[in-house]
């Protein structure tokens, strides 16, 4: 009718699809940012370890010495022995000590408990010793997130900011190239990845 005003009412289905698309886009942006952050931190860690690393294997499973199996996050061959690295992408303020079973993470005003990570890496060192009896085994738990230790960082624990300095002691140890290589080959013969024997993982 002439003079009547036509009011456009958007289809509710289209509106819901638009909202869903915006939500998916926001999630995609968040995931991309997290991925880029993780990649950047991995590159930073690899850059620090490059000067020590002759070879490396990740997620290798070895006998734990008491009838079970134990997975190692990163095992690195160096001129001066073997280096065990366990990484934890945790953020916030962290509190812990070598003899305490439960450590604490405080983030956004909330407190969370987590198992002492030194226990696992020390068990890994003990499991490696029979396979490398004449080779020094160094180890570090590395927190790769934006974290700090307000009351002091325990021994054998690093953040990405302190790792390079913390590893300097390795350079003071005598070279054990031949013994280290013999132990390395023995570990790779015994170790498993994804249920398969580890042949060798060369690193650049």
Total helices: the number is 5
Weakly predicted, low-confidence segments: none
Spatial order of strands in the largest sheet: 1-2-3-7-9
**Sheet with the most strands, sense and barrel status:** 5 strands, mixed
Structural class: alpha/beta
Strand content: 25-35%
- Number of separate domains: 1
Q: What is the CA–CA distance across the termini?
A: 78 Å
What is the subunit organization of this protein?
single chain
Q: Report the strand count.
A: 11
Computed CA radius of gyration, to the nearest angstrom: 24 Å
Architecture overview:
By secondary structure, the chain is an alpha/beta fold. The chain has one domain. The chain is 36% helix and 29% strand. It has helices at 12-50, 117-128, 163-166, 168-171, 177-190, and strands at 55-63, 69-78, 81-88, 92-95, 102-107, 110-115, 137-143, 147-148, 157-159, 192-193, 196-197. The longest helix has 39 residues, at 12-50. It starts with 11 loop residues before the first helix and ends in a 7-residue tail after the last strand.
């Amino acid at each position: 009718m002439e003079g009547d005003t036509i009011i456009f009412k958007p289809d509710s289905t289209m509106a819901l699809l638009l909202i869903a698309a915006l939500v998916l886009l926001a999630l995609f942006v968040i995931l991309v940012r997290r991925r880029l952050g993780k990649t950047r931190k991995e590159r930073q860690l690899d850059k620090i370890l490059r000067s020590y690393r002759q070879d490396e294997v990740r997620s290798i499973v070895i006998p734990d010495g008491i009838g079970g199996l134990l997975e190692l996050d990163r095992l690195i061959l160096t001129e001066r022995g073997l280096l065990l690295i366990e990484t934890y992408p945790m953020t916030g303020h962290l509190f812990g000590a070598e003899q305490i079973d439960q450590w604490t993470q405080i983030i956004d005003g909330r407190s969370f408990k987590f198992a002492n990570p030194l226990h696992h890496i020390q068990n890994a060192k003990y499991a490696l010793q029979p396979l490398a009896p004449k080779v020094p085994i160094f180890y570090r738990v590395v927190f790769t997130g934006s974290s700090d230790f307000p009351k002091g960082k325990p021994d054998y624990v690093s953040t990405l900011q302190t790792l390079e300095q913390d590893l300097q002691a390795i350079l003071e140890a005598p070279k054990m190239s031949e013994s280290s290589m013999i132990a390395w080959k023995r570990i790779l013969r015994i170790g498993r990845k994804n249920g398969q024997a580890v042949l060798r993982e060369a690193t650049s």
